[in-house]
Design a protein that fits this description.
The chain has helices spanning about 20-25, 50-65, 75-85, 100-110, 125-135, 150-155, 180-185, 240-250, 255-270, 270-295, 315-325, 350-360; strands at about 40, 95, 115-120, 140-145, 160-165, 190-195, 215-220, 235-240, 305-310, 325, 330-335, 340-345. The protein is an alpha/beta fold. The chain binds pyridoxal-5'-phosphate. Pyridoxal-5'-phosphate (PLP) binds near residues 99, 101, 166 and 229.
Length: about 375
Protein backbone atom coordinates (compact mmCIF):
# COMPACT_ATOMS: atom_id res chain seq x y z
CA UNK A 1 0.00 0.00 0.00
CA UNK A 2 1.30 3.46 -0.87
CA UNK A 3 2.22 5.30 2.31
CA UNK A 4 1.29 8.95 2.51
CA UNK A 5 4.14 11.31 3.31
CA UNK A 6 3.51 11.79 7.01
CA UNK A 7 1.95 8.51 8.20
CA UNK A 8 4.75 6.99 10.23
CA UNK A 9 7.38 9.63 9.79
CA UNK A 10 8.45 10.65 13.26
CA UNK A 11 11.30 12.77 12.00
CA UNK A 12 9.01 15.40 10.60
CA UNK A 13 7.51 17.94 12.95
CA UNK A 14 6.46 21.55 12.99
CA UNK A 15 9.57 23.54 13.94
CA UNK A 16 9.56 24.53 17.58
CA UNK A 17 6.40 22.60 18.47
CA UNK A 18 5.53 19.00 19.27
CA UNK A 19 2.24 18.32 17.52
CA UNK A 20 1.47 14.93 19.07
CA UNK A 21 2.07 13.06 22.34
CA UNK A 22 5.29 11.02 22.57
CA UNK A 23 3.32 7.78 23.17
CA UNK A 24 1.18 8.62 20.15
CA UNK A 25 4.27 8.88 17.95
CA UNK A 26 5.16 5.32 18.94
CA UNK A 27 2.03 4.04 17.23
CA UNK A 28 2.60 3.07 13.62
CA UNK A 29 -0.01 3.50 10.92
CA UNK A 30 -1.84 0.21 10.41
CA UNK A 31 -0.90 -0.61 6.84
CA UNK A 32 -0.68 -4.32 5.91
CA UNK A 33 -0.07 -5.25 2.30
CA UNK A 34 -3.48 -4.89 0.63
CA UNK A 35 -2.22 -5.17 -2.96
CA UNK A 36 -4.78 -6.80 -5.24
CA UNK A 37 -4.23 -10.54 -5.75
CA UNK A 38 -5.96 -13.03 -8.04
CA UNK A 39 -6.84 -15.18 -5.02
CA UNK A 40 -7.14 -13.09 -1.87
CA UNK A 41 -7.10 -15.20 1.29
CA UNK A 42 -5.70 -12.42 3.45
CA UNK A 43 -8.55 -10.74 5.34
CA UNK A 44 -11.06 -13.40 6.51
CA UNK A 45 -14.01 -11.81 4.72
CA UNK A 46 -16.83 -13.85 3.13
CA UNK A 47 -15.31 -15.15 -0.10
CA UNK A 48 -18.71 -16.38 -1.31
CA UNK A 49 -19.87 -12.77 -1.72
CA UNK A 50 -22.60 -10.59 -0.33
CA UNK A 51 -26.00 -11.76 0.94
CA UNK A 52 -28.78 -11.10 -1.65
CA UNK A 53 -31.16 -9.05 0.52
CA UNK A 54 -28.32 -6.78 1.60
CA UNK A 55 -27.16 -6.37 -2.03
CA UNK A 56 -30.67 -5.32 -3.08
CA UNK A 57 -30.85 -2.73 -0.30
CA UNK A 58 -27.48 -1.24 -1.26
CA UNK A 59 -28.79 -0.62 -4.78
CA UNK A 60 -32.10 0.75 -3.51
CA UNK A 61 -30.62 2.96 -0.84
CA UNK A 62 -28.17 4.43 -3.31
CA UNK A 63 -31.03 6.09 -5.15
CA UNK A 64 -32.89 7.10 -1.96
CA UNK A 65 -32.36 10.27 -0.01
CA UNK A 66 -28.78 10.47 1.13
CA UNK A 67 -28.88 14.23 1.52
CA UNK A 68 -30.17 13.67 5.08
CA UNK A 69 -28.32 12.23 8.07
CA UNK A 70 -29.02 8.61 9.06
CA UNK A 71 -30.61 7.89 12.47
CA UNK A 72 -28.30 9.08 15.28
CA UNK A 73 -27.71 5.67 16.88
CA UNK A 74 -29.07 3.17 14.33
CA UNK A 75 -32.17 2.14 16.32
CA UNK A 76 -33.67 -0.08 13.65
CA UNK A 77 -30.36 -1.89 13.24
CA UNK A 78 -30.16 -2.44 17.01
CA UNK A 79 -33.60 -4.06 16.92
CA UNK A 80 -32.56 -6.38 14.09
CA UNK A 81 -29.35 -7.32 15.95
CA UNK A 82 -31.29 -8.02 19.17
CA UNK A 83 -33.68 -10.30 17.28
CA UNK A 84 -30.75 -12.08 15.59
CA UNK A 85 -28.92 -12.67 18.88
CA UNK A 86 -32.03 -13.71 20.83
CA UNK A 87 -31.46 -15.01 24.36
CA UNK A 88 -33.04 -11.97 26.03
CA UNK A 89 -30.76 -9.40 24.36
CA UNK A 90 -32.62 -6.07 24.04
CA UNK A 91 -31.76 -3.02 21.86
CA UNK A 92 -30.57 -1.02 24.90
CA UNK A 93 -27.84 -3.66 25.35
CA UNK A 94 -26.38 -2.91 21.89
CA UNK A 95 -24.04 -0.25 20.57
CA UNK A 96 -23.26 -0.18 16.85
CA UNK A 97 -20.38 1.43 15.01
CA UNK A 98 -18.37 1.93 11.84
CA UNK A 99 -17.03 -1.62 12.00
CA UNK A 100 -16.29 -3.31 15.32
CA UNK A 101 -12.94 -1.50 15.14
CA UNK A 102 -14.86 1.69 15.88
CA UNK A 103 -16.79 0.04 18.72
CA UNK A 104 -13.62 -1.37 20.30
CA UNK A 105 -11.84 2.00 20.02
CA UNK A 106 -14.86 3.77 21.56
CA UNK A 107 -15.09 1.17 24.34
CA UNK A 108 -11.44 1.59 25.30
CA UNK A 109 -11.84 5.37 25.34
CA UNK A 110 -15.06 5.20 27.38
CA UNK A 111 -14.13 2.52 29.89
CA UNK A 112 -10.42 3.06 30.50
CA UNK A 113 -9.13 6.22 32.20
CA UNK A 114 -5.94 7.52 30.51
CA UNK A 115 -2.84 5.95 32.03
CA UNK A 116 -4.58 2.71 33.04
CA UNK A 117 -3.86 -0.74 31.68
CA UNK A 118 -5.46 -2.54 28.76
CA UNK A 119 -4.45 -6.18 29.21
CA UNK A 120 -4.78 -8.00 25.92
CA UNK A 121 -4.23 -11.52 24.73
CA UNK A 122 -0.94 -12.02 22.86
CA UNK A 123 -0.87 -12.79 20.01
CA UNK A 124 -4.23 -11.33 19.09
CA UNK A 125 -5.96 -8.60 17.12
CA UNK A 126 -3.29 -6.06 16.17
CA UNK A 127 -5.57 -3.03 16.54
CA UNK A 128 -6.01 -3.33 20.31
CA UNK A 129 -2.59 -2.06 21.48
CA UNK A 130 -2.95 0.74 18.91
CA UNK A 131 -6.38 1.76 20.23
CA UNK A 132 -5.02 1.63 23.79
CA UNK A 133 -2.10 3.93 22.95
CA UNK A 134 -4.02 6.47 20.86
CA UNK A 135 -6.54 6.78 23.71
CA UNK A 136 -3.76 7.36 26.26
CA UNK A 137 -3.93 3.92 27.91
CA UNK A 138 -1.15 1.41 28.36
CA UNK A 139 -1.34 -1.84 26.41
CA UNK A 140 -0.15 -4.87 28.41
CA UNK A 141 0.27 -8.02 26.30
CA UNK A 142 -0.59 -11.24 28.15
CA UNK A 143 1.00 -14.24 26.52
CA UNK A 144 -1.43 -17.03 25.62
CA UNK A 145 -0.95 -20.45 27.20
CA UNK A 146 0.67 -23.32 25.30
CA UNK A 147 -2.90 -24.52 24.54
CA UNK A 148 -3.66 -21.17 22.79
CA UNK A 149 -5.91 -20.22 25.72
CA UNK A 150 -6.04 -17.05 27.84
CA UNK A 151 -3.83 -17.12 30.95
CA UNK A 152 -6.47 -15.98 33.46
CA UNK A 153 -4.01 -15.65 36.36
CA UNK A 154 -1.77 -13.32 34.35
CA UNK A 155 -4.76 -11.18 33.31
CA UNK A 156 -5.89 -10.91 36.93
CA UNK A 157 -2.38 -10.09 38.15
CA UNK A 158 -2.19 -7.17 35.68
CA UNK A 159 -5.23 -5.56 37.38
CA UNK A 160 -6.40 -3.98 34.10
CA UNK A 161 -9.25 -1.51 33.71
CA UNK A 162 -9.91 -3.26 30.40
CA UNK A 163 -9.19 -6.91 29.61
CA UNK A 164 -9.37 -7.82 25.92
CA UNK A 165 -9.97 -11.41 24.90
CA UNK A 166 -10.73 -12.66 21.41
CA UNK A 167 -12.51 -15.98 20.82
CA UNK A 168 -12.01 -17.59 18.38
CA UNK A 169 -8.75 -15.70 18.51
CA UNK A 170 -7.26 -13.88 15.53
CA UNK A 171 -4.68 -14.92 14.31
CA UNK A 172 -4.50 -18.37 15.96
CA UNK A 173 -8.11 -19.34 15.13
CA UNK A 174 -8.32 -21.15 18.47
CA UNK A 175 -11.33 -20.66 20.72
CA UNK A 176 -10.61 -19.64 24.34
CA UNK A 177 -11.98 -21.89 27.06
CA UNK A 178 -15.17 -20.82 28.81
CA UNK A 179 -13.46 -21.42 32.17
CA UNK A 180 -10.63 -18.96 31.54
CA UNK A 181 -12.97 -16.35 30.06
CA UNK A 182 -15.21 -16.57 33.14
CA UNK A 183 -12.20 -16.38 35.46
CA UNK A 184 -10.94 -13.22 33.72
CA UNK A 185 -14.37 -11.58 33.89
CA UNK A 186 -14.68 -12.34 37.63
CA UNK A 187 -11.08 -11.58 38.52
CA UNK A 188 -10.19 -8.28 36.83
CA UNK A 189 -11.33 -5.00 38.36
CA UNK A 190 -12.60 -3.46 35.10
CA UNK A 191 -14.56 -4.48 32.03
CA UNK A 192 -13.70 -7.59 30.01
CA UNK A 193 -14.19 -7.29 26.26
CA UNK A 194 -14.65 -10.58 24.41
CA UNK A 195 -14.18 -10.01 20.69
CA UNK A 196 -16.40 -12.53 18.89
CA UNK A 197 -15.74 -11.36 15.32
CA UNK A 198 -15.69 -15.05 14.28
CA UNK A 199 -18.41 -16.42 16.59
CA UNK A 200 -20.60 -17.53 13.67
CA UNK A 201 -17.96 -20.12 12.70
CA UNK A 202 -17.44 -21.46 16.23
CA UNK A 203 -19.25 -24.17 18.18
CA UNK A 204 -19.79 -21.89 21.16
CA UNK A 205 -20.16 -18.20 22.09
CA UNK A 206 -20.31 -16.30 25.37
CA UNK A 207 -23.61 -14.40 24.98
CA UNK A 208 -25.21 -16.34 27.86
CA UNK A 209 -22.61 -14.88 30.26
CA UNK A 210 -24.15 -11.43 29.78
CA UNK A 211 -27.04 -12.41 32.06
CA UNK A 212 -24.71 -12.78 35.04
CA UNK A 213 -21.78 -10.50 34.13
CA UNK A 214 -22.50 -6.75 33.99
CA UNK A 215 -18.77 -6.09 33.40
CA UNK A 216 -18.69 -8.08 30.14
CA UNK A 217 -18.87 -6.50 26.69
CA UNK A 218 -19.03 -8.78 23.64
CA UNK A 219 -18.10 -7.28 20.27
CA UNK A 220 -19.26 -8.65 16.93
CA UNK A 221 -18.99 -7.62 13.30
CA UNK A 222 -20.87 -7.97 10.03
CA UNK A 223 -17.57 -7.93 8.13
CA UNK A 224 -16.79 -11.63 8.32
CA UNK A 225 -19.65 -14.21 8.20
CA UNK A 226 -22.15 -11.62 6.90
CA UNK A 227 -20.01 -10.53 3.95
CA UNK A 228 -20.42 -6.78 4.51
CA UNK A 229 -16.85 -5.64 5.31
CA UNK A 230 -17.01 -2.81 2.78
CA UNK A 231 -20.04 -1.31 4.50
CA UNK A 232 -18.29 -1.15 7.91
CA UNK A 233 -20.83 -2.39 10.47
CA UNK A 234 -19.91 -3.66 13.92
CA UNK A 235 -21.57 -3.80 17.30
CA UNK A 236 -21.10 -4.71 20.92
CA UNK A 237 -23.51 -6.21 23.45
CA UNK A 238 -23.44 -5.65 27.18
CA UNK A 239 -25.10 -4.18 30.22
CA UNK A 240 -27.16 -1.07 29.27
CA UNK A 241 -25.02 1.18 31.50
CA UNK A 242 -21.75 -0.01 29.91
CA UNK A 243 -23.26 0.25 26.44
CA UNK A 244 -24.52 3.79 27.09
CA UNK A 245 -21.00 4.85 28.10
CA UNK A 246 -19.52 3.37 24.92
CA UNK A 247 -22.21 4.95 22.74
CA UNK A 248 -21.44 8.39 24.15
CA UNK A 249 -17.77 8.05 23.26
CA UNK A 250 -18.65 6.64 19.84
CA UNK A 251 -20.75 9.66 18.91
CA UNK A 252 -23.67 9.99 16.45
CA UNK A 253 -24.09 8.92 12.81
CA UNK A 254 -21.41 6.22 12.75
CA UNK A 255 -23.40 3.75 10.65
CA UNK A 256 -24.25 5.20 7.25
CA UNK A 257 -27.82 5.06 5.95
CA UNK A 258 -26.89 2.59 3.20
CA UNK A 259 -24.95 0.35 5.59
CA UNK A 260 -27.79 0.28 8.12
CA UNK A 261 -30.39 -0.67 5.50
CA UNK A 262 -28.22 -3.45 4.09
CA UNK A 263 -27.40 -4.76 7.56
CA UNK A 264 -31.06 -4.89 8.58
CA UNK A 265 -31.89 -6.81 5.38
CA UNK A 266 -29.00 -9.23 6.02
CA UNK A 267 -30.17 -9.88 9.60
CA UNK A 268 -33.81 -10.35 8.70
CA UNK A 269 -33.87 -11.91 5.21
CA UNK A 270 -30.44 -13.42 4.60
CA UNK A 271 -29.84 -15.60 7.66
CA UNK A 272 -30.27 -18.85 5.72
CA UNK A 273 -27.84 -17.61 3.06
CA UNK A 274 -25.31 -16.70 5.76
CA UNK A 275 -25.73 -20.01 7.64
CA UNK A 276 -25.22 -22.00 4.46
CA UNK A 277 -21.94 -20.17 3.71
CA UNK A 278 -20.82 -20.56 7.30
CA UNK A 279 -21.43 -24.32 7.06
CA UNK A 280 -19.39 -24.44 3.84
CA UNK A 281 -16.60 -22.44 5.48
CA UNK A 282 -16.48 -24.84 8.42
CA UNK A 283 -16.43 -27.85 6.07
CA UNK A 284 -13.69 -26.32 3.89
CA UNK A 285 -11.70 -25.28 6.96
CA UNK A 286 -11.45 -28.89 8.11
CA UNK A 287 -10.61 -30.02 4.58
CA UNK A 288 -7.91 -27.33 4.37
CA UNK A 289 -6.39 -28.46 7.68
CA UNK A 290 -6.28 -32.08 6.47
CA UNK A 291 -4.74 -31.08 3.13
CA UNK A 292 -2.09 -28.91 4.79
CA UNK A 293 -1.14 -31.76 7.14
CA UNK A 294 -0.68 -34.04 4.15
CA UNK A 295 1.48 -31.31 2.61
CA UNK A 296 3.85 -31.37 5.57
CA UNK A 297 2.46 -28.51 7.68
CA UNK A 298 1.09 -28.41 11.25
CA UNK A 299 -1.81 -25.90 11.12
CA UNK A 300 -3.39 -24.74 14.39
CA UNK A 301 -6.87 -26.22 15.02
CA UNK A 302 -9.32 -23.43 14.16
CA UNK A 303 -12.87 -22.47 15.16
CA UNK A 304 -12.92 -19.50 12.76
CA UNK A 305 -12.93 -19.01 8.97
CA UNK A 306 -9.15 -19.00 8.72
CA UNK A 307 -6.27 -21.29 9.56
CA UNK A 308 -2.88 -20.34 11.00
CA UNK A 309 -0.02 -22.25 9.44
CA UNK A 310 3.40 -22.12 11.11
CA UNK A 311 6.23 -21.85 8.55
CA UNK A 312 9.98 -21.34 8.81
CA UNK A 313 10.02 -18.08 6.81
CA UNK A 314 6.75 -16.18 6.53
CA UNK A 315 8.15 -13.37 4.38
CA UNK A 316 9.65 -15.79 1.88
CA UNK A 317 6.55 -17.99 1.77
CA UNK A 318 4.32 -14.92 1.37
CA UNK A 319 6.44 -13.69 -1.53
CA UNK A 320 6.36 -17.10 -3.19
CA UNK A 321 2.56 -17.25 -2.89
CA UNK A 322 2.20 -13.69 -4.18
CA UNK A 323 4.27 -14.66 -7.21
CA UNK A 324 1.55 -17.22 -7.92
CA UNK A 325 -1.20 -14.60 -7.45
CA UNK A 326 -2.21 -15.76 -3.97
CA UNK A 327 -2.45 -13.41 -0.99
CA UNK A 328 -2.39 -14.65 2.63
CA UNK A 329 -1.46 -12.77 5.82
CA UNK A 330 2.15 -13.37 6.85
CA UNK A 331 3.27 -13.00 10.48
CA UNK A 332 6.95 -12.83 11.36
CA UNK A 333 7.92 -14.01 14.85
CA UNK A 334 4.42 -14.39 16.27
CA UNK A 335 4.59 -14.74 20.07
CA UNK A 336 4.59 -18.39 21.09
CA UNK A 337 4.41 -19.60 17.48
CA UNK A 338 7.14 -18.03 15.37
CA UNK A 339 6.64 -17.31 11.68
CA UNK A 340 3.22 -18.22 10.31
CA UNK A 341 0.75 -17.61 7.50
CA UNK A 342 -2.92 -16.92 8.16
CA UNK A 343 -5.05 -18.37 5.37
CA UNK A 344 -8.72 -17.36 5.00
CA UNK A 345 -11.20 -20.10 4.16
CA UNK A 346 -13.30 -19.72 1.02
CA UNK A 347 -14.57 -21.82 -1.89
CA UNK A 348 -12.49 -24.96 -2.35
CA UNK A 349 -11.06 -24.06 -5.77
CA UNK A 350 -9.33 -21.04 -4.18
CA UNK A 351 -7.99 -23.08 -1.28
CA UNK A 352 -6.82 -25.88 -3.55
CA UNK A 353 -4.44 -23.54 -5.39
CA UNK A 354 -3.09 -22.26 -2.11
CA UNK A 355 -2.57 -25.79 -0.76
CA UNK A 356 -0.70 -26.93 -3.86
CA UNK A 357 1.50 -23.83 -3.80
CA UNK A 358 2.28 -24.41 -0.11
CA UNK A 359 2.88 -28.11 -0.65
CA UNK A 360 5.38 -27.29 -3.41
CA UNK A 361 7.10 -24.86 -1.02
CA UNK A 362 7.35 -27.49 1.72
CA UNK A 363 9.21 -29.85 -0.59
CA UNK A 364 12.87 -30.20 0.51
CA UNK A 365 15.10 -27.47 -0.85
CA UNK A 366 12.32 -24.95 -1.55
CA UNK A 367 12.44 -21.46 -0.06
CA UNK A 368 10.12 -20.94 2.93
CA UNK A 369 9.64 -24.65 3.57
CA UNK A 370 7.75 -25.74 6.68
C1 LIG B 1 -11.89 -8.40 11.42
C2 LIG B 1 -11.83 -8.24 12.90
C3 LIG B 1 -12.45 -7.17 13.54
C4 LIG B 1 -12.87 -5.92 12.84
O1 LIG B 1 -13.94 -5.98 12.12
P1 LIG B 1 -14.65 -4.69 11.53
O2 LIG B 1 -16.01 -4.84 12.06
O3 LIG B 1 -14.54 -4.86 10.07
O4 LIG B 1 -13.98 -3.47 12.04
C5 LIG B 1 -12.46 -7.12 14.91
N1 LIG B 1 -11.85 -8.07 15.63
C6 LIG B 1 -11.23 -9.10 15.06
C7 LIG B 1 -10.57 -10.11 15.90
C8 LIG B 1 -11.18 -9.21 13.67
O5 LIG B 1 -10.51 -10.21 13.11
Amino acid sequence: MARRGWGNDMTRSIPGARITRAEYDEVSLYAPNRAVARIDLSDNTNLWGMPPGAAREVHRAASASITRYPPLYADELKQAIAAYLGGGVTPDMIVTGCGSDDVLDSAIRALGPPGTIVAHLQPSFAMIPRFARVNGLEPRPIMMTSEFDADADAFIAARPRIAYLCSPNNPTGAPLSRTSIERVIRGVPGVTIVDEAYAEFAAENMLDLLATSPRLLISRTMSKAFGLAGLRIGYAVGDPAVVAAVEKSRGPYKVSAIAARAAVAALTEDLDWVRERVALAVENRERLVRALRLGGYAPVASAANFVLVPVSDATGADRALRDRGIAVRPFAGLAGIGDALRVSVGPWDMLEECVSALTALAAPGEAGSA
